[in-house]
What we know:
The protein is an alpha+beta fold. The protein has a domain at 15-145: Beta Complex (Dna Repair Protein Xrcc4, Chain: A, domain 1). It contains 9 helices and 7 strands. The protein starts with 5 loop residues before the first helix and ends with a helix. Keywords: Cell cycle, Coiled coil, Cytoplasm, Cytoskeleton.
Amino acid sequence: MHKASQIDLKFxxxxxxxxxxxxxxxxxxxxxxxxxxxxSQQYFYMIVEQIDLQHLIQIRMIQVNDQSKMLISTIDNAxxxxxxxxxxxxxxxxxxxDHLIKILDSCKREELHLALxxxxxxxxxxxxxxxxxxxxxxxxxxxxxxTTDIVLFHINQSLQxxxxxxxxxxxQVQQFQMEIDKxxxxxxxxxxxxxxxxxxxxxQENLIFNRNTEEVNRLLQTIKMLNENKxxxxxxxxxxxxxxxxxxxxxxxxxxxxxxxxxxxSKRFEAYREENVKxxxxxxxxxxxxxxxxxxxxxxxxxxxxxEIVVTDLKRQLIEMQSKLKIAEKQRSELExxxxxEKNICQTKKHALQLTTDELANASLVINNLNKExxxxxxxxxxxxxxxxxxxxxxxxxxxRITELSNTVTAIQQEHMRNKSCNEEYAEIVGxxxxxxxxxxxxxxxxxxxxxxxxxxxxxxxxAPCVACKYDDE
Length: 474
């Protein structure tokens, strides 16, 4: 065992120990140990520590079965320069530390492997990668046996940690013991409560059994009442359905009769319409006759105007005729123009005045006759227009009656549809009543069967067979 160097003692010095930082925590790893041609696999705890603000790390290997066997390797700048020159590394000291931690993590995942070569109390830690052709070595790290001071220091630290764990475990055990005692007390209390509850449960079971028997009897009575009510309700609904069917038949007959009446009224309406068309044709003919008579009157008035004296008389007669007839207003201008043209001719035809006066007298008589005929024709037109107005009123009244009849027909049809829907609703209600009665019967039968099974399975009750017999009889 070599003497501990000053660099190794820094990691156990109390002053420097405060600045020590663990880079790779305590992890057991399998290591292939080779000693004088003998290979064996052993487990070692691997720890990597570093002092802050200094290029100084320490790799420590402790055998799992025997913690007195400890190997260490303290690497500073000088030691790293030797390793870098020997193994041709391309990183700085801090890069070497980072790569070392990554390599140990991959060893923990069994991607890389560790081997410890020992020869003449000299140890070399080898980190390699297995392959089918050749193992590739990534790093060699020289290791040395730790001195007794270092071993004792780390053993004391592990003992202190174990003592702390033991104290924490003992406190936890005491807490667990207290909790167990509390739980035991609660268990005892719960047992007592369970015993008291078991007695109460028996009492409640007896009460529930008695209540259930009473409820079953009540349910049986209600089932009987429901069956009786169901029969009476079915009879009542059948009578209602028969009465509704009779009403529907009566309504159908009435609808048929009303439709026939509507058809007859429509035929009458068409006949009245044809008569109205004929009357309109007659009114058109009368208007044509009036126009023809007015044309004759104008032609006769043209013949009358031949002289100035006749013009004055004709003007008087025209003014009187304008007040009575109000028809020849447009022809005045034409007559005046013709009279002005005939003034020049009057000088040559004075000897014919006597003849013209006679003709004018005859014309006046004819005009009076025509006026009388015109008055008669106007009275006839007024009568026929009154008749046409009355017919139009009758037609309007018939239209109103037809609309009222159509409304009544639609109302009857709606009542018919409502009666159909009411019949369907009554049928649905009867079906629902049947379904509910069947469901209630099945429900109470299930309850009765369950009660019978409960009574038969309960050996503490003596009256169970009698109750079951009662239910079977009912």
